[in-house]
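Lab channel / #folding
Pinned by the channel admin:
"Please post every new chain as: sequence first, then the structure tokens as a reply. Keep commentary short and put observations after the output so the thread stays searchable."

First post following the new format, from NK:
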Amino acid sequence: MNASLHAVLRLFFAGHRRLLWSGIALAALTVFAGMGLLGLSGWFITATALAGLATGTALAFDVFTPGAGIRLLALIRTASRYGERVVTHDAVLAVIAALRPRLFAGWAGPEAARRLLARPARLLFRLTADADALDALYLRLLVPAGAACAAIALVAITLGMVSLPLGLGVAGWLLATGTCILAWTARRSRRAAYRRAHAIEALRAQAIDLVSGQVELAMAGRLAAQCETLARTERRLAAADDAINRADTLGGWLQALTGTLAMAATLAACALLVAGSAIGAPVAALALLLVLASAEPLTPLRRGALELGRTMLAIRRLAPRLDTPAAPAGRAASGDVLLDRAGLRHPGQPALSAGQALQDITLDIRPGERVAVVGPSGAGKSTLLALVAGERVPSTGQVRAPASCLLTQRTELFQDSLRDNLRLARPDADDDALWSALRAAGLDQTVAALPAGLDTRLGEGGLGLSAGQARRLALARLFLRPTQLWLLDEPTEGLDAATARDVVARLAGQADGRTLLIATHIRREAALADRIIVLDAGTMAADLRRGTPAFDHRLHTLRPD
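Reply from TO:
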């Protein structure tokens, strides 16, 4: 945990060190101005009252200098408070914005797609709620801690000038009791904070499942059970909130008690000093009010301690993903695709299991070759493409391949404009390049007929386009991607025959000079290939070349157009 905390703190202060320290300095300045304002006001009121007891002292008393000081401190406090809010929030938002791309990169390694599909709610929670929880590390812990230390230091210096034992004693008491109360509050609320974070995550996932799957749940007779599960989770959340609130209330009571004891001790000491003529009543009032004002920065720090458990949980979850991932092993700069006795087993499967997803695959694909991978469902075709794409890591053997572009059976479109959906493939593409890709995919006339053209907004999952139009948009995105290796996983699955034939023809027209690896069980797709690799139960059963009877026979055994 300490290593994770240090890693996050290093990232916090790596690129925005000056801004972060400026926020802490402004918070300390706000505390100084507020304590000075209260103390000087108390001194001024007391001194004015005493001076008014006699005509001579009243006429000689200077009311302008302390009055000007009070106005100056009020202005400083207002300006520094505003500056603190702007600078600290600007700093933390900049840090979180810089962390999120690192988190995306951390989850972009091999196996990421499979884990994303298995637990999408969890990964979404990490990228949103957990990342947002990191702002408490700075806003609710580091900034208030700096302000509290500044307040205690001011008490020590000011009271030390009145009486050194008084200054050291009060400052030591405030520091010791404040630290103990904050540690106790953080410890008491830690488990409740963990339970609250887990309950919120579960509540979000269960609510989404209830809303999106209510038809299926109703048909299965599980709608009432899902509602009860949601209610139980909500009760756990309420119990965790109640425990945190109790810790907050008790921590606040302890802080009030220790602050009252500090003021009582200061009052007694000042009374003795006034009685011995060591100080006057105005100085005693100043000292007492400074001790009173020193408790103000401890309140937000206590609230930060309540959130410490949630913050540390987020740090523990995110810190391993904040390191920039190394390039996947085996990525080749040349155009060859090489698999040397590559095998892959599913998680939890024994190493020597005969039912591995892939076993002992040895394959050499030269640049410009077109290879179709065929076999029955479950033979490992899509898994082989995932190995070559770097989405999966081989359990045995080696895989070397250049950068590739994978077109899967499922068309992935986002709730955004057509332009931005295309630019996922090439962010720097101008409109001419986008229209050229659309023209090559046969979608240019459809887009040109839309009122907003490339700025047309799609709904979630590409809502607003037919299945054929969505596939053509994905095809245009493939054409935009500047890679020499195309991995096509049943690219015409689910399309009507005419659209499928047109898509295959357009793929053939744009594939000149590129290497193609096609997973298919359809004849029209395999006809693009110069070689056919036959997979059977995860093993490579045959490697057939165009022009041989075995190639022609295998091609004609595939499902017709």
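NK: The longest strand covers residues 337-344.
TO: also worth noting, The chain is about 65% helix and 10% strand.
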